[in-house]
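Q: Structure tokens for this one, please.
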Amino acid sequence: MEKNSKAAFTRRDFVLSASATALAAPAFAQNAGTTEIEGEVEVARRNISSFRSLQWQPYFSNLRNGAILVDIDSRALHFWNEAGEYRLYPSSVPLSEDLTRRGRTKVIRKVEGPSWRPTPAMLKRNPEWPPFIGPGPDNPLGTHALYLGWTYYRIHGTQDTRKIGRRSSNGCIGLYNEHIAEVFAASKVGTQVLLI
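A: Here is the predicted structure, written as tokens:
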């Protein structure tokens, strides 16, 4: 009899265990590919519904030189050219609130094939980082960079596409290289920038 009870894994038992596993799977799947740390476990905080198009009028008085709005919470960059044509791009945003800068600035310089130097604060946090990386496939600024009126802040491409849609930067806003190339071509020195 004991022999039968050990081997008696019924179809009902199988269905119940499979159901329990299936119910747990969505919670597990939501935690995969994550961006924020909660205790020792990284947890995804993505809200697809917040990745939506916006109108420029609540944020800018005009579109002279175009306008860029970066929504830190939805991890999206909104771009309008002077004619009012609109584009929406997924972006990476600063890793933490203390690295985040919000407010108004503008594009002060555009560089195709930028070089990169970590800031003193970055080197303090990451002393193993190199002091300089020239243009090319290893450059963390990707193929193009828009330098902002705030020291050390940029909107740039990235070679590491896993960062897009995440809190992953040291303060900058990152785009896929093909997207930064579009924004770079359509923006000007003087393009308004607002980070909210």
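A few notes: Confidence is low (pLDDT under 50) at residues 1-7, 12-49. The radius of gyration is 23 Å.
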